[in-house]
TrEMBL record:
<dbReference type="GO" id="GO:0008270">
    <property type="term" value="F:zinc ion binding"/>
</dbReference>
<feature type="domain" description="MYND-type">
    <location>
        <begin position="151"/>
        <end position="195"/>
    </location>
</feature>
<keyword id="KW-0863">Zinc-finger</keyword>
<keyword id="KW-0862">Zinc</keyword>
<dbReference type="InterPro" id="IPR002893">
    <property type="entry name" value="Znf_MYND"/>
</dbReference>
<dbReference type="Pfam" id="PF01753">
    <property type="entry name" value="zf-MYND"/>
</dbReference>
<protein>
    <recommendedName>
        <fullName>MYND-type domain-containing protein</fullName>
    </recommendedName>
</protein>
<keyword id="KW-0479">Metal-binding</keyword>
Amino acid sequence: MPEPNTFESLLRNDITFPAFSDLPDENDVDPTYYDEGPYRFSPRRHWCFLGEIVDSYGLCRVLLRVKDKEGQVVTIGLYTDDRGQALAPHMKEGHTVAVLYGEQHGFMDMTVGIRVEEPSVIRIIPCSLEQLLKASDDVAARNLSGQSKCCGSCGKEENTSGNKHLRLCSRCKQASYCGEVCQKKAWADGHKAECKALVWVKWFAARNWGVFNGYFDF
Ligand SMILES: [Zn+2]
Ligand SMILES: [Zn+2]
């Protein structure tokens, strides 16, 4: 279960999903994210950086330019064994990069950003950061108000429509519809992209970010 005090805000939570300026610096022990132990420092919680791709470049190594929640554009350098080639097909402008345990890094060319060494901490989510945050708000609202009572396409209410149960989208389990016609219409009208965002929000929401007992990976 997610931690109760941040449950409503999900991806808007600035400690779990910090903007670049709030990430720990790799040369410091940030007490928000690390405990200083007797031998070495260890994470005290989980966190994930989110940034939307605005550009990518680099010939032998992929470098992504991403814009974070606060609008700051930073570099993500892929220092994985394959230098980011596996991710290359998903690198589209407007898609969102998620980096678990990202830390502020100063690159040789004087830009700042995040250096990624493990392929398991980075994913590209095929929707914009805005879509992802909106999906997060939708999930948070649903968590507060309970099951939606209206068809996500025509708006028909569950009580008055004659249909006792709205059908839930089987992928995101978030959107609900009065029937197949409305479901198909909503999919064509944009739920396809929204659905992917919702599935990712649920992946994030299903984890307890406040307690560290081993690293998460994608
Ligand atoms: Zn409907
Ligand atoms: Zn869906």
